[in-house]
Amino acid sequence: MIAKTRHIKDTKKLIGSLPAVRYVDPKYIYLATTNARCSSFELYIKEGDHVNCCQLIGMRHGPFFDQPIHATCSGTFVGYEKHYHRNGKLIDFIKIENDFKDTFDKSCFKRSPEEIAKLSKDEITEIVKNCALVGLGGSSFPTYVKFQTDKKIDVILINAIECEPYITADHRLMLEFPNRVIDGIKYAMQAFDCKKAYICIKSKYKDIKTVYKQLLKEYPDSGIELCCVGNYYPQGWEVEMIRKATGIKLNPGELPSNRGIIDFNVSTIVGLYKAIKYNMPVVKRFVTVTGDGINFPKNFRVRVGTSIKDLIPLCEGYKNPDKEKVFILGGPMMGASVPSDDCIITKTVTSIIIFDKMEFKEEPCVRCGSCVLSCPVHLEPVQIMNAVKVADKERIKKLNPLKCIECGLCAYSCTSKIQVTDYIRKAKIFAKL
Known about the structure:
The protein is α/β, with parallel strands linked by helices and 433 residues long. The protein folds into three domains: 13-106 and 282-356, no CATH class; 113-278, 3-Layer(aba) Sandwich (Rossmann fold), CATH 3.40.50; 370-432, no CATH class. 28% of the residues lie in helices and 21% in strands. The chain contains 15 helices and 17 strands. The chain has a six-stranded mixed beta sheet, covered by helices on one side. Strands 2-8-7-4 form a four-stranded antiparallel beta sheet, with no helix packed on it. Helix 12 crosses helix 15 (420-432).
């Protein structure tokens, strides 16, 4: 019997319970010159220049916004190298040789509680913009844009659901820096003059529940509450999280702010804490290195710009080193595949998942309907796939593939092992023509 796919094999129990390994002193750090949102850049330093940690060294340019580039260590700019980005492309990275002094730029300073309390929404927005804070759950969308809304915000949701399999980076962040999470939420509430915030986690995260229920007793009048949501995938999808946490069902394409809601990933909210408290960009982040292709999966706290190659030995190397590997940056459902471990941890890399490569034979579609039943946005993936195969643009547009959130459930649930999600990605290109 074909049923709706909602649950994916739990791969988190052991690694999520282990403290993160601190690895913040690589010999070199690498900073992307461009990304999926910004296709050009300019650099404010030249080869041989010394830079300080958090120094503004360049600017990425996109169609609608710019993104500042900050050094994430102090050291010397030694040139450019090509490495794989989280978008799967081979691009130029700025290479900085670490001097291991961690000399911070003069732009970083500590604000007192009194100074923070006086900050207006516009001032907080400007700080967030200058610190280049983006969605650290993987979206990389500039956070300051959310702060520019003129809508009244009644509730702030913190997405700590981390619903994809394998990834436990946010889990460790929440357990190891809970006070930073709370303070970041308070700063967001101050900006929006909002009296209510929910920290959304899966109901099964008993360790997080224990820590935050106790911690929130220290903030009795904060308006911050823990909100336990479903244990299914894709519970972390913005629309589904909002529906479960508030009972509000967004219309297709509707902004949450239209319903008085703003949401942030939990790593982003800690980035907000660092920006407001210390005027710092994101310099370090938690990342999961896991999969059946390495010997000992681990969570790390690393400096942004660290090479994945530096972390593999700390996991005791590859299991079955003679076997070809598959490398995924991000989650296995929605992440990007890269050809090798020659990739860099940018701000938005939550994980690197390494599998031994397996060959799957794609069978003909048996029209079982599992992809239709499982699709959270109620598309007809097989119909879209068939339209793509014959390049029927009009049919593709009528099937509305742009609604797809690329959760990967259609491919995951396919009994014939068809990469249905890839066809829908192609359909999106047709639909925009």
